[in-house]
Amino acid sequence: MTSESSTEATEPTFRHLDDPEVTWQQVKRQRNADGSESSVWEKWLACAADPQYLTLYAKYDPGMIVRRHGHFSPHVVMILEGGAWFGQRWCPAGTHIELPTGAAFGPIRAGDEGAVMFEVMMGDPRSWGEQPELFERALAEQGAEPLPDVELEYPDWLTDLRSLWASPGENSSNANPPHADPLLTEPLHTEPLHTEPLPSEER
C-alpha cells in the first residue's frame, strides 16, 4: 500500500472498491469449533503518512472475534451491513461508533450474517489490546482459537503492532504517547476483572 502526503497532494483522489490496487488483506483469523476458519478482511482505501490517517472497508466473517482494543488516534466505525457485538452492546447496520484516543471497545464478535464496516483512523492507525482475559473468554464460549497473523503490506513508516497488549492510560511509565514508537515500550497485561459473559446474539 503506497502512502500519500496531503501536503503534496493538490487534487482529490478517487478510488473504487473494485479498483485493482485496492486489494483485500487478511488482518485477523481464527479456527472455529467445527474446524472452519473465520477472518477479518480489509481494503485500505487511503493510507497517508503526513498527516497520518487510514480509511478502510472491512468484512468480518460470521462469528469472527477480535480482542478488546483501542487505537493510537481517534477512530470512527460505521456498520454498513450485518452487525456485531462490541462488548455487551449489539450494533446492527446503521450504528456509528466514535472511539477517542485512549478508549477501547470489544471484544468484537460478528453476528451470524457477519459484518461490513467503514472505518477511519485520524492519526496513527495501529491498535493496542487490553484485558486479554475477555478475549480468551469470548473465544472459549464459542469454541474458537486465534490463528497466527498473516503478513500485511504495511507502508514503510508503520510497523506491525497486532500482537501488542498495552493500555496507554494504564500506567504512565509504560504508556505509549501518540507520537512514540510503541515497539520501544514493554507491553502491559492488565489484571483480570470480574465481568459478565458476552451475551448470546439475538436471533
UniProtKB/TrEMBL annotation:
The UniProt regions of compositional bias labelled Basic and acidic residues, in chain numbering, are 188-203
Q: Where is this region: Disordered?
A: 165-203
Q: Which Gene3D superfamilies match?
A: Jelly Rolls
Q: What is this protein called?
A: Unannotated protein
